[in-house]
Design brief:
Number of strands: 0
Strand content: under 5%
Length: 98
């Protein structure tokens, strides 16, 4: 819904900005647009959202324990990842090469 509202408002805003730019000039229109961009910041600054610590309606979630955060170590021999280069000595004389 919010995407529809913001995308739907773009053509209207473009027409208003073009008309205002034609009527009062480009620089005053840019100043007016900049001032309008500051309005949401002022609204959010004075809203109760700044004091929220948790999402409304969500239960407080405890922090995970150390066992949940630490990955388990494998108990067998470690196999290198196949993307890791391994230096294997190679005998070129047995192949008939230089």
């Amino acid at each position: 819904m919010s995407t529809w509202l913001t995308s739907g408002g773009r053509p209207v805003a473009a027409l208003l900005a073009g008309g205002l730019g034609t009527w009062i000039g480009v620089r005053p229109t840019l100043v007016a647009g900049t001032c309008l961009l500051l309005v949401p910041l002022a609204v959010l600054h004075h809203s109760p959202l700044r004091g929220l610590l948790d999402m409304p309606g969500s239960h407080a979630v405890a922090s995970p324990s150390a066992e949940a955060v630490t990955p388990a170590t494998p108990s067998g021999p470690t196999v290198p990842h196949r993307a890791v280069a391994v230096d294997v000595p190679h005998d070129h004389a047995s192949e008939g090469g230089p």
